[in-house]
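Below is how a single chain appears once it has passed through the pipeline. First comes the sequence as given, then the structure the pipeline wrote out for it. We keep one example in the README because the format questions we get most often are answered faster by looking than by reading.
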Amino acid sequence: MKVEFRECDFFDLWIWLELPLPPAQMEQQYLEEVFSSWFLLGKLGGFNAENLQVQDAGLDISYIDYDEQSAGDSFMALMHNMSEVEYQGNWARCWFDLGTTDALALDVLINALEQLSKDYVPIERVIIGGENPDWKIPGKKRSEFVDLENN
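Resulting structure:
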Protein backbone atom coordinates (compact mmCIF):
# COMPACT_ATOMS: atom_id res chain seq x y z
CA MET A 1 0.00 0.00 0.00
CA LYS A 2 1.50 3.29 -1.11
CA VAL A 3 0.85 6.37 1.06
CA GLU A 4 0.96 9.85 -0.47
CA PHE A 5 0.58 13.17 1.28
CA ARG A 6 -0.63 16.23 -0.54
CA GLU A 7 -1.60 19.67 0.76
CA CYS A 8 -3.06 19.04 4.23
CA ASP A 9 -5.52 21.30 6.02
CA PHE A 10 -6.62 19.59 9.25
CA PHE A 11 -9.95 21.46 9.13
CA ASP A 12 -10.69 20.41 5.53
CA LEU A 13 -9.02 17.09 4.74
CA TRP A 14 -9.96 14.53 2.12
CA ILE A 15 -8.61 10.99 2.38
CA TRP A 16 -8.69 8.91 -0.79
CA LEU A 17 -8.27 5.14 -1.15
CA GLU A 18 -7.47 3.49 -4.46
CA LEU A 19 -8.42 -0.17 -4.65
CA PRO A 20 -7.53 -2.68 -7.37
CA LEU A 21 -11.26 -3.21 -8.12
CA PRO A 22 -14.51 -1.52 -7.16
CA PRO A 23 -15.18 -2.56 -3.54
CA ALA A 24 -17.85 -5.17 -2.82
CA GLN A 25 -20.51 -4.44 -0.20
CA MET A 26 -18.56 -6.22 2.57
CA GLU A 27 -15.35 -4.36 1.64
CA GLN A 28 -17.25 -1.07 1.80
CA GLN A 29 -18.50 -2.00 5.26
CA TYR A 30 -14.94 -2.69 6.46
CA LEU A 31 -13.69 0.64 5.10
CA GLU A 32 -16.59 2.55 6.64
CA GLU A 33 -16.06 0.87 10.02
CA VAL A 34 -12.36 1.76 10.04
CA PHE A 35 -13.07 5.42 9.24
CA SER A 36 -15.99 5.62 11.71
CA SER A 37 -14.04 3.96 14.53
CA TRP A 38 -11.02 6.17 13.90
CA PHE A 39 -13.22 9.28 13.87
CA LEU A 40 -15.02 8.29 17.08
CA LEU A 41 -11.70 7.87 18.89
CA GLY A 42 -10.65 11.28 17.54
CA LYS A 43 -13.93 12.90 18.58
CA LEU A 44 -13.30 11.59 22.11
CA GLY A 45 -9.76 13.04 22.17
CA GLY A 46 -7.91 9.75 21.75
CA PHE A 47 -5.15 11.16 19.55
CA ASN A 48 -3.63 13.61 22.00
CA ALA A 49 0.15 13.52 21.56
CA GLU A 50 0.53 15.81 24.58
CA ASN A 51 -0.63 12.98 26.84
CA LEU A 52 1.21 9.78 25.89
CA GLN A 53 2.19 8.71 29.38
CA VAL A 54 2.08 4.97 28.72
CA GLN A 55 4.04 5.27 25.46
CA ASP A 56 6.57 7.53 27.15
CA ALA A 57 7.06 5.03 29.99
CA GLY A 58 8.85 2.63 27.66
CA LEU A 59 8.56 -1.14 27.42
CA ASP A 60 7.94 -1.89 31.10
CA ILE A 61 4.59 -0.36 31.99
CA SER A 62 3.99 -2.48 35.08
CA TYR A 63 3.00 -0.28 37.99
CA ILE A 64 3.57 3.04 36.23
CA ASP A 65 2.23 6.08 38.04
CA TYR A 66 -0.39 7.54 35.72
CA ASP A 67 -0.74 11.25 36.34
CA GLU A 68 -4.43 12.15 36.02
CA GLN A 69 -3.69 15.81 36.72
CA SER A 70 -1.25 15.96 33.80
CA ALA A 71 -3.77 14.20 31.57
CA GLY A 72 -6.47 16.67 32.55
CA ASP A 73 -4.20 19.67 31.99
CA SER A 74 -3.23 18.71 28.43
CA PHE A 75 -4.72 20.66 25.53
CA MET A 76 -7.84 19.00 24.12
CA ALA A 77 -7.19 17.29 20.80
CA LEU A 78 -10.60 16.66 19.27
CA MET A 79 -11.80 15.80 15.77
CA HIS A 80 -14.89 17.75 14.73
CA ASN A 81 -16.62 16.20 11.73
CA MET A 82 -16.60 13.60 8.96
CA SER A 83 -18.67 12.93 5.86
CA GLU A 84 -20.05 9.65 4.64
CA VAL A 85 -17.59 7.47 2.75
CA GLU A 86 -18.19 7.90 -0.98
CA TYR A 87 -17.36 5.45 -3.78
CA GLN A 88 -16.68 5.88 -7.48
CA GLY A 89 -15.29 2.95 -9.45
CA ASN A 90 -12.24 1.63 -7.64
CA TRP A 91 -11.94 4.77 -5.45
CA ALA A 92 -13.25 5.52 -1.98
CA ARG A 93 -13.00 8.89 -0.25
CA CYS A 94 -14.01 10.55 2.97
CA TRP A 95 -13.79 14.15 4.20
CA PHE A 96 -12.72 15.09 7.73
CA ASP A 97 -12.43 18.12 9.94
CA LEU A 98 -9.66 16.88 12.21
CA GLY A 99 -9.98 19.92 14.44
CA THR A 100 -7.24 20.10 17.04
CA THR A 101 -6.34 16.42 16.96
CA ASP A 102 -2.64 15.66 16.62
CA ALA A 103 -0.90 14.18 13.57
CA LEU A 104 -0.58 10.99 15.60
CA ALA A 105 -4.12 10.28 14.40
CA LEU A 106 -2.94 9.94 10.81
CA ASP A 107 -0.23 7.46 11.82
CA VAL A 108 -2.86 5.37 13.60
CA LEU A 109 -5.17 5.46 10.56
CA ILE A 110 -2.35 4.52 8.17
CA ASN A 111 -1.36 1.61 10.43
CA ALA A 112 -4.97 0.39 10.55
CA LEU A 113 -5.42 0.71 6.77
CA GLU A 114 -2.14 -1.15 6.20
CA GLN A 115 -3.40 -4.11 8.22
CA LEU A 116 -6.88 -3.91 6.67
CA SER A 117 -5.21 -4.04 3.25
CA LYS A 118 -3.25 -7.16 4.18
CA ASP A 119 -6.16 -9.04 5.76
CA TYR A 120 -9.46 -7.92 4.23
CA VAL A 121 -9.57 -5.16 1.61
CA PRO A 122 -6.59 -4.73 -0.73
CA ILE A 123 -5.68 -1.04 -0.91
CA GLU A 124 -3.21 0.06 -3.56
CA ARG A 125 -2.85 3.69 -2.52
CA VAL A 126 -3.89 6.10 0.21
CA ILE A 127 -3.83 9.81 -0.60
CA ILE A 128 -4.07 12.17 2.34
CA GLY A 129 -5.05 15.75 1.57
CA GLY A 130 -5.16 17.75 -1.60
CA GLU A 131 -7.18 16.84 -4.64
CA ASN A 132 -7.41 13.67 -6.67
CA PRO A 133 -7.32 14.20 -10.45
CA ASP A 134 -9.19 10.89 -10.91
CA TRP A 135 -12.14 12.19 -8.82
CA LYS A 136 -12.48 15.93 -8.47
CA ILE A 137 -13.90 17.59 -5.37
CA PRO A 138 -17.23 19.14 -6.39
CA GLY A 139 -17.40 22.94 -6.31
CA LYS A 140 -15.82 24.04 -3.08
CA LYS A 141 -13.10 22.01 -1.41
CA ARG A 142 -15.27 20.97 1.53
CA SER A 143 -17.57 18.01 1.44
CA GLU A 144 -21.21 18.43 0.49
CA PHE A 145 -21.88 17.10 4.01
CA VAL A 146 -20.66 20.38 5.50
CA ASP A 147 -22.82 22.42 3.12
CA LEU A 148 -25.91 20.41 4.10
CA GLU A 149 -25.14 20.78 7.80
CA ASN A 150 -24.79 24.57 7.57
CA ASN A 151 -28.13 25.09 5.74
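The longest strand covers residues 91-97.

See the next section for the split statistics.
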